[in-house]
C-alpha cells in the first residue's frame, strides 16, 4: 500500500481507499470508501483543484476533523500514482492525442507511441484489461505529465476510442459501487456476474434490476436448504433397531355364498278399476299424469300398473276418459319372492336373503355357485347375474372370536393365528370359509425399537416422538432405508403398520444388526439448491434470461427489460417437415414454431388437450436442428417425452435429421424402441460393435446427438451435468457441491408439461441452456406438491417456532368451539408455557384490530403474563392472570377458576393444581403430566363435555382416532387446495378455506409474508407464473413485482412470446363440448377436421347408437375412497368392450386402447385388482390383452387421473366414487384432465343425483350436460 511508505500507526487509522463518487459544479466533491460501512467523505475544492481530480478517480486519502466536521484532509495517491512526486500540471496538460500500442510490458501495462508527441506514453494495465487492448491497436487518449517516473514522464489518464470505436462512457458511480459490492464482497465472490448484467450496456436501471433478481433468489435457496435440513434431521431422528417377531399365518378368505340379481317385472300400484294403457289422470290443480304400464288382473280383481310420475305427489286423481270420476289405488306389494332355488342337476340352494330392487330381485344363496351353472327359480329357469364379492368386513368365527377386521377375498391375508372353526361370518352374518395359504407368511414381522442414541438426546417437551412419524394415521410413510447404504434400491417397503405393538411387515429381513431410518429423497432438491446458488453467485452471460424472470420492477420497468431482447425475424419461411398439411389449426401451430424460432430468450406454448402440442414440438425440434442447434427436451413425466421420441423413431424424415439420446435407466422405460436409444444401451452397442472403451463410446454419443431427452430427475444423470457438480451420498448425509460452472451445452431447452414444473425444478436444466420453450396447459394439473418440503419450510419460518405454531392450532380449535351455555361446566386446557404466551399475544393482536374469532370468553393463567396486557377484569371475553395474582386474591381465584374456558400454562398449573376443583382437563402434547399428578387425579373426562366430545378426533378407516395434528400440515393442505381452486367459480368453497386459514395464520406480517413466499416456490408451475402470475397486481406496494410473481407484461408476451393452440384433434365433439365451453371459454378445443377423417379411416362402432359422452348412473356406496358398486359396473362394461373388440378389430391391425381412471387411490387399487382378475394377468397397470387366455385386441390401462395426464385412449371409463359431497373433484384442472382423455367414447360412472344437486357449479354443469340418451339407467330425480 502506498500509504505504508508514509509511516505512523496513528495516521494509518484514518487512511482510506476509495474513489471520487462525484464533483459538484461549485468545485467540492465526495469520496466513496471501498468499505461499505464507512460513509462518504467531503472533499474540499482546494484538494480537487490541487490534484486535478475527476469523477471515478481512484484515490487513497486521509480523513480528519475540520471546522465543518469530518472531511478529506490529504490525498495520498490518485489512480495508484503517489501525489507526493506529482508536479503541478501545467495549463497545457492533460492533453488529448492519437497513437498506437508499441509493446506490452511484463506487468501487463503497455507502451504507447503518439502521432504528434515524441515521448513514449505509459498505458496502465487497467485500460489494457478493460478495453482488451493489444499490440498495434490505434487509440485516442488523454495523457498527463507525471514527470517523476523511473522510466516514463507521461501516462494515459483516459481512453476515448480503440481502433476507431468509441468506448463506453464511464459507468455512473452508483453502478461502480454495485459492481464493487458484487465483485469484492468475500461472502459473495460474484466474480462472473459482471459478464451477465453488463452485457446489455451500462443502463443503471437494468443493472439494479439484475442485482434485485440476484437478491430474490435467496428465498428459493432457503426453501431448498430447509427441505434438505429437514430430511437430514428426520434421518437422524428416525433411527430404529429391530427384532423379528413371530410370523403371522397366511389364509385365503372365500365367500360361501353367492349374491345374484334376477330380472322381474314389477309395478308401483294396484287398483280394482278397469284401466287401460295410456289412460290419462288429472288433479284439481290440472296436473296431468298417464298410466304407462299395466299387468294381468289377479283372482281378486286387482290390476297392477305404473305411471309416468308418482301418484303420491297429489292427494286425489280423476280419470279423464271416465268423466273425471275419482281414481282409487293402493301401493303395490313387492314382487312375490322365490320359495326355492335349485342348481340344475344338483342340490337345493339355501336362500339367505331376498331384496326387491325395482325390476330386480337380489338374492343371497348358500353355498357359492359357478357363473355357468343353470338355476331353477320355483321350477323356472331364469337368467341371473352374479355380483362379485371382492371384499369383506370384520369376520368372526363360530365361537364369536374376531379373525380379521377387513380385507379382500381370494387373496392371501395374514392373521395372528388360524381360525378355530371352518366357517366364518361377517357383520351381516354372511358365511365364508378359509384355506391355509402356507404355514407362514412370505412377509416378516419386525418390531421397531428406538435407537438408544436418539432416545438419549430426545426432549419430550419440544421434540416430536419418532414413533409418530411411522405409525401416526396423519402421516403416510411406507418405506424405511438401511442406514449407510448408498442406493435407493436399498429401501425397505413396510406394510401393516401397528402402532400399539410398534410392528411393521417387510418382504425381506434387513441385514443383521442394521439400523433402519427414513427420510425424503433429496437428490433433486439438492441439485436445485446447487444451481440456484450458481445463478446467484456465478451466473454467466447465457443465464441473463433467468435473471430477467426474477428482476424486480413494475409492469413498465419489466416491459422495458424484456423489450431489450427483441426477436430475430426469420429471413425465409421454414421448409416444414411435420406440419405439411392444411388441417384445422395447422397455421396456429406454424405460428408458434415461428415465434419460438425467432425468440432469443423464452416462449410459452399453451396446448389444451389433444391440440397437437407434441406435433408442434416435433416441428420446432426439426427446424432448430436444421439450423444447427442442440436441443434438450425435459418433462415431468416419461410419457410426455417418450411420446415425442416414439414419433421421431417412426418417421424417417425426422430420424434422418434428428439424432436422439434418452437419459435414464432402460428398466424404467416401457417402449422397447426407446430403450434402444438410451445412453446406456447405445454405449453398450458402440462398445461391442466397434471396440470403443466406455469413455470413447459415451463421448461419441453425446457429441453426435443433437436431441437429448430425459425427465426432470433423470437428466441429473447426464454426464455434462454430472461433471459440473459432485453429488453427496443421500443416506450418509454428505453434501453436494459445484465443481465446474454450468456451461451452455444446449442451445434450446424445451420443457413439456411445464404446467407441472415448479421454478425450482425448471432451474436445473435451464442453467445449462441459452433459451427456453415452455409447453403445457395451465388448465390441466398443477405441479405435484412435495408435501414434506412444503411442511419443512412452513416449520422453518424464522421467529415462529413449534410452540407458536401450536398456539395458532389452538386458536383455530377454539374458534370452532361453539359458545358455552349456562349448563356447560368449565373446562381447563393445560399447554406448554410458550404456547400459552403465544396464544395470548395472538388474541391480543386481533382484539386491537377489532377482530374476534373465538366465541367463548377466555381466562388465561400465564407465568409469563406480558406487561402490555392490562389488569382489566371487567372484560370477560379476555382475561389474563398470573398464578401469583390468583393465589394472593381469593376473589380472583373464585371468579376466574369457574369462568367457562380456562387456558393455563404448565408452570401455572403446577402452582395452582391444589386449588383447582374437579373439572374436564385437556393436556397438551408437550406438557409434562408427571408433574401434575394432583390435577390429573381431579380431572374428569373432557369427552363428556358437550362442546369437546369430538375434540381432536378424526375418522380413520371407519374408526374415531385421536389425530396428532400439526399446524404445518393443517396449513399446507389448505393452501394447496386453495391454489387448486384458483380458477374455480365456487366462491363459497374458496371463502371457507380462506376463513380457516385466517384462523391458523397469525396476523403478524412477517409470518404472512414468509408463507406467501413459500407458496410461490412450492405451489405454482413456472408456466402459470409467467402466463398469469401467481400474485395479483393489486398486491400492496411492499410486495416486489417480477415476471415470475406477476407474469409477463402483456406487451412483451402476447404474439411475441406466447401462443395457444386453438383446435383439438382427439375428441368427438360430444366429448369436447363441455371442456371447451367451461374451461377454455370457447377459445380453444375447437373440433378439427382431422376427427372426421380419422373416423372414416378407422371406423368405431362400440355403442355407436348412443352419444360419445355418456354418464352411467350408479347408486353405490362410498367407503373410505372406494365405491364397490362402481367397480362392478365398470367390470361389466369392460367385459362388453372385450367382446366387442374381439368381433371388431381395428382395420389398421393395431389394438384398441382402453383406460380406466379414477381420482382416488383406493378406488384405483380396487379397479386394478378387478382388472387383474378378469384378465388373468398380474400386470402393474398396463395390460396387453392380446396375451390374455381369451385374447382381445386391446391395450388396457388402469390409472389414477393425475398420472394419466398427457395420454389418451379410444375408450375411457371414469369412476367418480363420491356419493355425497364432491371432495377434491371440484378442481377444474383435475376434472379437465379426466374428461378429455377419450378419443371415441367416454363413460362417467357416478351417482348422478349427487352431482346434479352439488353446490359446486362446475360439477353441477358437468352432470346436467348428460341428459336424454347420454344418461344411462336414469332414475327419477327431484
Features:
single chain; 1278 residues; alpha+beta; seven-stranded antiparallel beta sheet; 40 helices; globular; disordered C terminus
What's the structural blueprint in terms of helices and strands?
Blueprint (H helix, E strand, L loop, with lengths): L8 H4 L2 E9 L5 E5 L7 E3 L1 H6 L7 E9 L2 E10 L2 E2 L12 E10 L5 E5 L5 E4 L1 H6 L7 E8 L8 E9 L2 E2 L6 H12 L8 H5 L6 H13 L1 H20 L1 E6 L4 E7 L2 E6 L5 E3 L8 E3 L5 E7 L8 E5 L9 E3 L5 E3 L2 E2 L9 E3 L4 E10 L2 E7 L8 E3 L2 E2 L2 E4 L3 E2 L2 E3 L4 E3 L2 E2 L3 E4 L7 E3 L5 E6 L7 E7 L1 H6 L8 H6 L7 E4 L8 E8 L4 E4 L9 E2 L5 H15 L6 H7 L4 H9 L22 H13 L3 E5 L6 H14 L4 E5 L2 H13 L1 H4 L4 E3 L9 H5 L2 H12 L3 H11 L2 E5 L7 H4 L2 E2 L10 E2 L7 E7 L6 H8 L2 E8 L10 H9 L6 H15 L10 E5 L1 H16 L9 E4 L16 E4 L1 H6 L1 H7 L4 E5 H7 L6 E5 ...
